[in-house]
Amino acid sequence: MSAWLDKEEFKARVLEWAAKLDVKASALYVRPMRRKWASCSTAGNLNFNRELLELARELGDYVIVHVGYALQKLDPGEAEKTLELFAGFDAGMSAA
Predict the structure, then answer these.
(1) CA dist list (Å): 24 to 37, 73, 82
(2) Is residue 2 part of a domain?
(3) How far, in Å, CA of 74 to CA of 24, rounded?
């Protein structure tokens, strides 16, 4: 298993998978991330940890597909409800 040549090769692979999964990527970033391999937003922003470039391509593909699938299933209304729920938990913790 070999690592990615560079960031541009990785981004090209993300766009390949986006087309296969019928996912619209509005923006694509490869950047330092402290706590996760990737993230996505309801706006179609895809963020990938730059450390993925040092890993085997197969692992990168796994992360890319996982994020693409999550973006397909992400419902803005449900995301908003979840954020409100978390805000309520945070307020409750602050009051305690």
Answers:
(1) 20, 13, 23
(2) no
(3) 12
CB 39 within 8 A of CB 18: no
- Spatial distance between the Cα atoms of 52 and 43, rounded to a whole number of angstroms: 23
- Identify the domain containing residue 82 by its residue range: 7-95
Q: What is the mean pLDDT of each run of 10 residues along the chain (96 residues)?
A: 91 92 90 92 89 94 85 66 68 56
- The model's pTM is 0.72
CATH number for the domain spanning 45: value is 3.30.2010.10
Beta strands in the chain (DSSP E): 27-31, 38-40, 45-49
Identify which of 37, 35, 25 has the alpha carbon closest to the alpha carbon of residue 68. Answer: 25
CA 56 to centroid of chain Cα atoms: 18
